[in-house]
Structure formats: structure tokens, C-alpha cells
Amino acid sequence: MKRFILSFIFFFVSTLFLYSENRYEFSVDLTKCVKDKLLVELMTPNLNSNEVIYRLPKIVPGTYEILNFGRFVSNFKVYDSLGTEMEFEKLDVNSWKIINAKKIKKLSYEVEDTWDTEIKEPYVFEPGGSNFEAGKNFVLNPHCLFGFFEGMKGVPYQINIIRPSDFFGACSLTDVVSKGNVDTYSIVDYKELQDAPMMYNVPDTTVLNIGETQVLISVYSLNKISSSKFISEQISEILFAQEEYLGGVLPIKKYVYLIYLTSTGGISGSSGALEHSYSSMYFLPEMDQKYLSQTIRDVSAHEFFHIVTPLNIHAEQIGDFNFNDPQMSKHLWLYEGTTEYASGLVQIKYGNMSLSDYLKVIESKVSGSKGFNDSISFTLMSEGCLKQYKDQYSNVYQKGALIGMCLDIQLRYLSKGKYGLQELMVDLSKTYGKNKSFKDDELFDQIVKLTYPEIGDFFHNYVEGNKPLPVKEMLELVGIGVADASGNKQISIGGISIGLNTATNRLMIVNTEAMDDFGKAIGYQEYDELIKFNGKKLTVNNSQEVIGGFVQNAKEGDELLVVVGRRKSDTSKTKKIKLKAKLFPVLPAASNNLIPFTNATDEQLKLRTDWIGKH
Ligand SMILES: [Zn+2]
Fold first, then answer.
1. Which residues surround ligand 1, an ion (CB under 5 A)?
2. Quick one: fold of 490-586?
3. Assign residue 175 a region: left if phi > 0, alpha if psi is -120 to 50, beta otherwise?
4. What is the pLDDT of residues 489-526, one digit of tens each?
5. Would you say residue 124 has pLDDT above 50?
6. Are the CB atoms for 254 and 360 separated by under 8 Å?
7. What CA–CA distances, in Å, run from 156 to 192, 344, 455, 521?
8. What's the 126 CA to ligand 1 centre distance in angstroms?
9. Which pTM was predicted?
10. Other CB atoms closer than 10 Å to residue 244's CB: what's the count?
11. Which of 321, 355, 578, 609 is the most exposed place for a label (fewest CB within 10 A)?
């Protein structure tokens, strides 16, 4: 009996605690989305100072771009307990100052979604933004809707989402109660809230069990081109490989993939994903599953590996992230570079990719990095990636990944195969962690302590310094060389770089620097929009199918007809022009074809096996 009373008292006390708890209480009604806007209401926590500043983030972790989420807020109002409107002052695009703060009871404002907005650049990369498609889909990145009072990011949050009754909200938050069509989430602080995007729609979900880890995959594919079942098959193979890579156990209990497949492309002109501690949000083309498969594998491997870094190995600037006055760390080579590298390595090492396909991945990093300035120190670029080196940021996925590869091979070489980047990351995770940051200036010394003095020289020369990376030398250690271009003529469609013109949503030739003789023969020009390719209308979503399909079957003598849209100047109209030429073998303009040595030594072969497994 005593036991009963004790538990009764305990229950009573905990209930009392719950009701007296100071917290933010936000409500959003997804059934009342008008003109792509949602009303956000906040019952404020106790405010003890005379004036307060309410903020939405200027930047969020993982985006490396100033986006000013306050831009999407309108009709901002402050009320006291009698429901009377109070005055406020707008300090900047993300901040509202309110005096007589002790009287504040409620804030309300409207938020427009970032995916479909008149608000001009910088456009928000879709996985870090918001999508309000009434009756169809809502992508709610909390930083797009919910803010905090200055100095009060540590106060708990309650978020009430009123949803259409047939909708399901996928999210990594576990403290959620659903009553009728209201989902109520309890979150310990702003950092945890911001780290947990939600996607609401009619559910298409699959749950995977990988060891002890439960993985939820939620997919929105408007035209049902793909499904959570198909995507989960791709992801599970990669996750099993990642489990092995990480030492046999995934270091988290629950993980959520939120995947939006777009049929039209997005305002930012890119697709991809953004990482969080227990989830990742994807914005990818709704394309034929045959072509979607490898994209899903690559992107999901990359995002999941972010649980290693920066989520568990990071500098103070990330551990104590300042949403409104961001300081950038020097180590993007680590956060994005080694993550991108490991996402390819895990696929070849555990049997999900062939050696020739993996060498193509490295080749693409080598040619991709040529579009950037190689004479800038990578640590300096990292520190300046919001400002002077903004246009160099994307090199983290190219040269950053090659830094990871060179470091890995160098470590394997010095340790006679026993120790590589894989082991280094385990050691760094033990030294640091989710709540233990490193100091930017101490990281290299710490890595040298864990490894070899030569690694200090490596960082000094190639990461802090600006010497060209020793890619060729490192690959030679594992018996792989650059093919002699003279014997390597091949059929090509021109050696052009293709991007997206976000104004017209058409594919466009963005760079002709590496254009080969066929490209010159057919007559491409920079900024030509690609309208038809080999008789087929070209869109963002079918480009891989149309161009890739053509390349696969192309042979010498076949005629290629391309219809391009060309403008004489910025102000003139686009004219359709037909370009045609017969295919002939050409030398790639910048040849970097990698081939395994036929006469590799036993030492090289052993090191190759230690590096990427047996092939
Ligand atoms: Zn990343």
C-alpha cells in the first residue's frame, strides 16, 4: 500500500511540475493554410526582464549560408493578457524588440514557405526550408517557423501541430502525444527543436531495423514514381555497410529519413539533403527508380555519416552554434570533405560498388575540383565561406573529399594498412562528442598525437597550406594511375558542364572550359539552354534518363541533334537553334581517367586491399 501512495505522490508532484513548467507553447494549424501562409501562435514563457528581443535564425547549422529566416515572416503581432495589441520595434530582418516584456502573453505572425516564394535571393536550399502545399505536403523546418527570445534558447518548447486527419507527421522527436488531429511535441530547448524537421502528408512510410537501431523512411512522391518501399531497399543496403564501417553498431537508437521527391525542380536550382542528429531531409528529383537508386544511395550515405561529423566531432563554433552571429570553423575539410569521401568508401569497401565505378567517383571529384581556385588554403576558405570565399564553398564536396582520400591512404601507408580515416574518426569520437567540442586551432595537433608526425606535415602543406594535393602520388601507393590520354579516345557528347537556369527551370550549359572536340564541332555556347536532346524534350527530372540513355548506346557515326535556346544578350529574346553533328571519338579535354596498374606490386595490392577491401 505504501508503494501505491508513494507512486501517487510522485505522480502528483510530476504533474504539478509539468503545469508550472516555464516553456514556449507554439501552435500551427496545417488545415488553415491560405495563400501558402501559415499562422504561428506563441503563448510566451515567463519573461522577467523589461524588454526582450524575439529572433528567428539568420543561419542554421549545416547550411553554411546566411539565409535570414525572418524574411518570410509578416503580420507580426504582440498581445498582453487582455488581448490588447502591444507595440514593438523591428531591429533587423530577423529580430523584434518588445518593451514592457513582463506584460506579454502571446505573439502571432504569418510565415510564408521558402520553396514557393516571391522573396528573392538568396533562395533557401529546399532541405533547409519550408513547403506549405495545402492538402498535399508540409515540410516544416522548425527554424522557418519558430524563434526564441534572446538569452532564452534553453527554455523548453511545446509545439502543437493541427493536421488534416489523414496526414502523418514524420519526425525524429520521440516525446509526442497525438490526440485527435493534434500532435503535441515536447522538446528540451531550441537547439533540439531546430535539429528536428517534420514532414506532414498522407503517409508512405517504411520502418527498418538495423541492429538495435530503428529507422523510419517517409517518402512524398506526388506522382507515385517512387515509394518508401523501394527507397528503403536502397538505404538498408547502405546502412548495413555503414554499420560495419562504424564498428558493428550504429551509434543511435532512432533515425528518420524525410524524402520529398519533386516533379518540377526547386527555386534554389539544386537538389540534395540536409543533415540533423537523428534525421535528414531530402529534396530530390522524382525520376525513374533506375536512376534514383544511386542518387539515393550516395546522398543518404553522406547524410547519415554526418552523425560522425560534425554532429559528434566538431569545433566550439558548431557545438555552441550562434544562430544570429555565426562564426565559421576552419575544418570544413572534416565536416563535409571526409563525410563525402566516406560515403563513397563505405560503398566499395563493403561490396555495394565495383572498383571501376568507385574510380569514376574519384575521377569526378578530380574534375569537379578543377572548377575552383586551388591556390586558396582550405582552412582559410572554410573560415571565409559565408563571405569572401562563398563561391568556393562547394569545393568541400570535391577537393574536400580528395583531402579525405589522401589522408586516408597516407594513414594506411604509414600504419602498414592497419589505421585509416575510419579508425581515426572512431578515436576522435571518443576524444570529443556531441557535447564536447574541440578548439579550432588544436585539432591538427590532436590528430598528430593520435597518428603520425607526417600527418602534421600533410595538414601543414595541403590543408592549411595551398600546395596542390598529392592525389597522383597517393593513388600510386595503392597501384592506381592516371591513364595515358593518347590511347583513350572515347565517344563524348561534348565535355560541357550542365546546370539549371532557375528563372526558366531549364537545363543550361554553365561552363565550356573542359569542352572537347565534339563539343566544338556541334557548336555549344556557354548559357545555351538545353531544350531537346536526341529528339526528346529535356527536363530536370528526365535528364539522366535521356542523356544517360543516349550515351550508353552511342556509337561512332550516330547523329546527335540538340535544340538549344540561345540569347544574344541579357535583354534579347531566346531563339531556338538546332545543333547537330555525327559522333566521333575524342580525347577528353582534361583527362583524368584512373586505371589500376596491371603490374602493381604485392605491396601496392596489399595496401589497396587495406584501403578499399578486396576487388
Ligand atoms: Zn554534408
1. 336
2. Pdz3 Domain (2.30.42)
3. beta
4. 788 888 887 877 766 778 888 778 778 889 999 999 88
5. yes
6. no
7. 10, 39, 44, 64
8. 14
9. 0.86
10. 14
11. 578
Report the distance separating Cα 298 and Cα 48, nearest Å.
49
- Options 1.10.390.10, 1.25.10.10, 1.20.5.320, 1.10.357.10; CATH for 308-479+600-615 is 1.10.390.10
505 CA → ligand 1 middle, Å? 25
Tens digit of pLDDT for each residue in 323-334?
A: 999 999 999 999
**Cα 198 to ligand 1 centre (Å):** 19
Amino acid identity, residue 45?
Answer: P
170 CA distance to ligand 1 middle (Å): 21
Sign of torsion over alpha carbons 258, 263, 265, 270: positive
CA of 335 to the centre of ligand 1 (A): 7
CATH architecture for residues 19-190 = Sandwich (2.60)
pLDDT at site 589: 61
Q: Please state the domain extents for the chain.
A: 19-190, 204-306, 308-479+600-615, 490-586
DSSP code, position 226: S
pLDDT digits (tens, 9 = 90+) for 345-402: 999 999 999 999 999 999 999 988 988 999 999 999 999 999 999 999 999 999 999 9
396 Cα: distance to centroid of ligand 1 (angstroms) = 9
SS3 for 348-361 is HHCCCCCHHHHHHH
Domains 204-306 and 308-479+600-615 share a fold: yes
From the CA of 270, how far away is ligand 1's center (Å)? 14
User: Rounded to the nearest whole angstrom, what is the distance from the C-alpha of residue 570 to the centroid of ligand 1?
Assistant: 35
- pLDDT(16) > 60: no
Q: Does domain 204-306 have CATH number 1.10.10.10?
A: no
| Angle, in degrees to the nearest 10, between helices 228-245 and 289-305 | 40
193-223 tens-digit pLDDT: 999 999 999 999 999 999 999 999 999 999 9
Please give the distance, rounded to the nearest whole angstrom, from the Cα atom of residue 311 to the centre of ligand 1: 11
- Secondary-structure breakdown of the chain: helix, strand, coil percentages, each rounded to the nearest 5: 35, 25, 40
For ligand 1, the distance from its centroid to the CA atom of residue 306, given in whole angstroms, is 7
How far is ligand 1, taken at its centre, from the CA of residue 301, in Å? 10
118 CA → ligand 1 middle, Å: 28
Distance 336 CA to ligand 1 centre (A): 5
> 338 CA to middle of ligand 1, Å?
9
